Amino acid sequence: MEDSVVNNVVNGCCHVNLKEKNLGLVLKGPEDRKLALEEVPVREPKDHEVLIRMKNVGICGSDVHYVTHGRIGHFVVEADMILGHEGAGIIAQVGKNVKGLKVGDKVAVEPGVPCRSCEHCIEGNYNLCPDVAFCATPPYDGDLRVYFTYDAKMCYKLPAHVSLEEGALLEPLAVGVHACSRAGVGIGDRVLITGAGPIGCMAVVVAKAAGASEIIVTDISASRLEFIKSLGATNTINVVGRTGEDVAEQVKILMDGNHPNKSIECSGAESGLHTCVMATRPGGTIVVVGMGAPVQKIALAHATIAEQSILGSFRYGPTDYARALNLVASGAVKVKPLVTHRFKLEESEKAFELAKTGGEGVVKIMIEV
Ligand SMILES: [Zn+2]
Ligand SMILES: [Zn+2]
């Protein structure tokens, strides 16, 4: 964890009380991997940084994964780590070189600071930066805490009518923006989305805003499918006990004999990707967002003969967060309905228990800090 401690942070704002205890939700590691609400240091902002009084932080599947498994791929929790990367808060202090932000501003926090000098950063793909310091990805701490010191350039000022909760939801929304951009979803597109979890939901609202005319979503949960219809899915298919071929056939029927030209895999399940390959039209595009088993089988011969383009999609790059904010601020996308459960910071452990078990009716769990 960050070690430089500031005891006397400048107090100059009516919105925040800097005398508050800086509690953070810490994943203890690696031996016990328990959650603990602990007082963590407040780091004084450097010239280019701001101090944020965090207000809303969403729980993400990746946070839960670190809690239950202690790792995601090669990211291994080797020391105590503060969780959280879907956050928004109020500026409490600004470094002297910060422009465009002032004390009291509401901001959404894009949770990765890229190195800005590697070839990926220079090419405009900072989500591929090998040195990105990403919140709650070992060894970096997250923002599920009362005070968070952060790079001002990765903070997005929210207009007055956009709530801090919506600000926190820009993170998963930006994932949807990036995925739909990778797929090139646009006017009149027929889109298949496999997986109706939070990212599937975000892909639906973005695809709809981008002009997709048909959006079919598959999942194994009837309640999730019911919910995603309210977000704009035109049809849903419950895939329990069904093969990809079978589901692909039903997609075609529901699309009046047409295949989707864009498919977005958001489930992480091998069967989801298989369904995308079987359903997508020749020459179509499949974007894989869901993270599942590291090695998965696909019908490669089918994909090759159909000249499908299969693309990965990881987090979000330059402009994605800003575009996510524009979608919410303009009213083109409504993200608030995704929040099904709200907990206080003090109830974080309870919130994670619910997130771990999932269950009917759980989409996005929000912590109010
Ligand atoms: Zn997330
Ligand atoms: Zn870089």
Describe this structure in words.
This is Enoyl reductase (ER) domain-containing protein. Residues 32-367 form the Enoyl reductase (ER) domain. Belongs to the zinc-containing alcohol dehydrogenase family. Its cofactor is Zn(2+). This protein has two domains: 23-157 and 335-368, Medium-chain alcohol dehydrogenases, catalytic domain (Quinone Oxidoreductase, Chain A, domain 1, Alpha-Beta Complex), CATH 3.90.180; 175-312, 3-Layer(aba) Sandwich (Rossmann fold), CATH 3.40.50.720. The protein is built from ten helices and 20 strands. It has helices at residues 61-69, 119-122, 164-183, 198-210, 222-231, 244-254, 270-279, 300-305, 320-330, 348-357, and strands at residues 23-27, 35-39, 49-58, 71-72, 75-76, 81-82, 86-94, 106-109, 112-113, 133-134, 147-151, 155-157, 190-194, 214-219, 235-238, 262-265, 285-288, 309-312, 339-344, 364-368. Strands 3, 7, 8, 11, 12, 19 and 20 form a seven-stranded mixed beta sheet that branches. It has a six-stranded parallel beta sheet with strand order 15-14-13-16-17-18, sandwiched between helices. It starts with 22 loop residues before the first strand and ends with a strand. Mean pLDDT is 94; it is low at 2-15. The protein binds zinc ion (ZN) (2 copies). Residues 114-115, 118, 120-121, 126, 129, 131 line the site of one zinc ion.
